[in-house]
Structure formats: structure tokens, C-alpha cells
From TrEMBL:
EC number: 2.7.13.3
Catalytic activity: ATP + protein L-histidine = ADP + protein N-phospho-L-histidine
Record's protein name: histidine kinase
SMART domains in the record: HATPase_c
SUPFAM superfamilies the UniProt entry points to: ATPase domain of HSP90 chaperone/DNA topoisomerase II/histidine kinase
PROSITE patterns, sorted: HIS_KIN (PS50109)
Keyword Protein biosynthesis assigned: no
Pfam families named in the record: HATPase_c
Organism: bioreactor metagenome
Encoding gene (name): phoR_41
Gene Ontology MF term list: histidine phosphotransfer kinase activity; phosphorelay sensor kinase activity
Domain Histidine kinase: start-end pairs: 4-220
Length: 221
């Protein structure tokens, strides 16, 4: 498991090393230098994101999940999660569409943990969506729950891999989830949503995109 996590960190670190060596060994004009610096910043953010996921995973393993339920503004939750990914969204020229049903503009949940969940799902969507693609975030009521969906027009997941994701999430298999998604983010998503008495669902069509969704009960205490 930890070998895969280290590989996830080493890969972007090698990118940074190569970019720094370019800056050291060659003379670039101002625009070229800025592009390289921006690339270093973006890659550093990826390392930070992986490190944060590792820290959260360790916390999940050694202690129970405590959730702090309070009334939250759904638009603010989604906006904060999108903003954490905004640099990569802009770089890939991805169109973001957010739809929040008027009945669920404010709901009760743990705002910090749901923001982390949305951040991880949006991060995955951005990672696997090509340039000029689209990501939609939907929030609406259904069967005494609030449904959150993150849908992308990315590369999609074939049915065998989709089946493995479900099996590994059921088994809380961090290693396999890491292999399929590059981070342990999905396991964290699963644990945080289960702490809200909700569930995580995945649907996908290879070559057309994926939709990750979860529900939060309206009567959660």
C-alpha cells in the first residue's frame, strides 16, 4: 500500500526536479520562466493534496470519525471545493456547471468533511477530464436525502475496473483504490459519507465520462 502512495508522491517530485534543472541549466525568457514556475506550483499542490489524504487516512485508521453537524450553505461548500482545484480547471479550460436545487441551498452536515469529499471528487474529475471538457456538480433532494453528483466528460472507466472500485471500496482496500485513482481519496470519501449515514455511488461509460455521487440524509443529527 505505502509503495503505491510513495510512487504517487515521487512522480510529481521528479517533475519538479526536472523543471528546476531546466531553470538552472538554460536561459529562458520571462514568459517561459513563468510557465515553468507555474508548473512547479501546480505540481507542488498535487503533492500537498496526496500528503493531506495520507494524513487523513492515518487518522481514520487510528481513531473514530467525529462529525460536527451544523447548518451549511451548499453553494459555499461547492465553491470552496471548486476553488481548491481552480488552477488545474483553468489550465485545462474545463467548463464547470453547478446546479443546486432551491430546496437544498442550506442543509445540515459536517461542512469541513463534505468539502473534503467534494474536493476529492472534483480533483478526480479534473484529473481524468481532457482539455476543454466539462464537469457538472448537481445537488438536489431525493427520498429524504440530499444527493450530490460530480459528473465529468472524461476518459471514463471500463466495467471491469468499475466493478473493482466497488469491491475495493466495500473492502476498504486502500491499495486497490490507490491503484485505480492515484490517491486514497475515494476511501476517505467513503468513510466520511458513511459517517453521515450516506452511501457513495459510481457510474461510468468508457470514453464518455464518469459520475460519482453520494447522499446525505435530511434528518441527520
Amino acid at each position: 500500500m505505502f509503495t503505491d502512495i510513495l510512487n504517487g508522491i515521487n512522480s510529481p517530485m521528479n517533475v519538479i526536479k526536472s523543471l528546476v534543472e531546466l531553470l538552472r541549466n538554460y536561459d529562458f525568457n520571462a514568459n517561459e520562466t513563468q510557465d515553468i514556475v507555474n508548473n512547479i506550483i501546480d505540481t507542488t499542490k498535487k503533492i500537498i493534496h496526496i500528503s493531506e489524504d495520507v494524513q487523513r487516512f492515518i487518522e481514520l485508521e487510528v481513531s473514530d470519525i467525529n462529525i460536527n453537524i451544523d447548518t451549511a450553505d451548499v453553494n459555499l461548500l461547492i465553491s470552496e471545493a471548486v476553488n481548491k482545484n481552480i488552477d488545474e480547471i483553468k489550465r485545462k479550460n474545463i467548463t464547470m456547471k453547478i446546479n443546486i436545487a432551491p430546496e437544498v441551498t442550506t442543509i445540515k452536515l459536517d461542512a469541513q468533511k463534505i468539502t473534503i469529499v467534494l474536493h476529492n471528487l472534483i480533483n478526480n474529475a479534473v484529473k481524468f477530464t481532457n482539455n476543454n471538457g466539462k464537469i457538472s456538480i448537481n445537488c438536489y433532494p431525493k427520498n429524504n436525502s440530499v444527493i450530490f453528483e460530480v459528473a465529468d466528460t472524461g476518459i471514463g472507466i471500463d466495467q471491469e475496473d468499475l466493478k473493482k472500485i466497488y469491491e475495493n471500496m466495500e473492502a476498504s482496500d486502500c491499495l486497490a483504490i490507490s491503484n485505480n485513482n492515484g490517491t486514497i481519496g475515494l476511501l476517505i470519501v467513503k468513510k466520511y459519507i458513511e459517517a453521515h449515514n450516506g452511501n457513495v455511488l459510481v457510474s461510468s461509460v468508457l470514453g464518455k465520462g464518469s459520475t460519482f455521487s453520494f447522499n446525505v440524509p435530511l434528518n441527520i443529527n
